[in-house]
Amino acid sequence: MSEFLQLMSQHPWLFITLSFIFAATIGSFLNVVIHRMPVMMKREWQQECNAYIEEYHASSLDKSALKKLTAPIDNYPERYNLIAPGSACPKCGNKIKPWQNIPVLGWIMLKGQCANCKTSISARYPVVEALTGLLVAVLAWHFGPNIQFALAALLTFILIALTFIDLDEMLLPDQLTLPLVWLGLLVNLPGTFTDLQSAIIGAVAGYLSLWSVFWLFKLLTGKEGMGYGDFKLMAVFGAWLGWQFLPVIILLSSLVGAIVGIAMILAKRLSREKPIPFGPYIAAAGWIALVYGQQIIDWYLGNML
């Protein structure tokens, strides 16, 4: 292992290239997570609701009403998780061959269509793969072959999954955000990205910062301005990077979110009343802070003082 790390240190472009290829392959799996995790969560919620209905309300409902309430909410196979069933065309059921699953290139070779029925395959699949590879390549260039790179890459993988799930479902699953908070604290036991005290304060301050905004907005308007998943995602970055980076993340995410929201309203792709997910902007701002946060803080302080 030490010889491999030494080789990668001596040939940084080889390390960056291998990091891109490996991460793009992980990006292919992230596409599965992005699509299937919400389905799995909805099924779990339905099972909990069904158990409640059958225990407390079954006697007050006729069979047809009970059957309607407990009917499946999707048309996917009964066994449906991150592993099974294997990837297949949703229209014709044709199994996707290994070579067709090559990140980015597989989609290009298929010309964006199912090999069997020619149904279009969303361009988002290669976009996620390429984005994952590109971001991890940047991390490889920034950190080099060390433990910081490995942990930052893991964080990036999960942030990409969270971003696209939130875009699709307005949902940041606890199954992803909460483990990241605890992992961030464990990661910083030896001070990998920040000292443990800053990480603990950061996790608390990250959560409370948006929680306070949420309740202030609700008291003033009677509406909920954001979801609890956003609080937890901010706690993630507090735990990983420390409380010192939270102002940068909040400012960057608010700025980008405002620009994108206004642009979409002006382009008439979004109504003023329709909510937009804030998680992707927090994730993007947090990732920028992970790589360039200290430079941003130094630049700001240097221009202010």
From TrEMBL:
Family annotation (PANTHER family): PREPILIN LEADER PEPTIDASE_N-METHYLTRANSFERASE-RELATED (PTHR30487:SF0), TYPE 4 PREPILIN-LIKE PROTEINS LEADER PEPTIDE-PROCESSING ENZYME (PTHR30487)
Domain of life: Bacteria
Protein name per the record: Prepilin leader peptidase/N-methyltransferase
Annotated Prepilin peptidase A24 N-terminal domain residues: 21-143
EC number(s) reported in the record: 2.1.1.-, 3.4.23.43
Keyword Membrane applies: yes
Originating organism: Shewanella submarina
Family according to the record: Belongs to the peptidase A24 family.
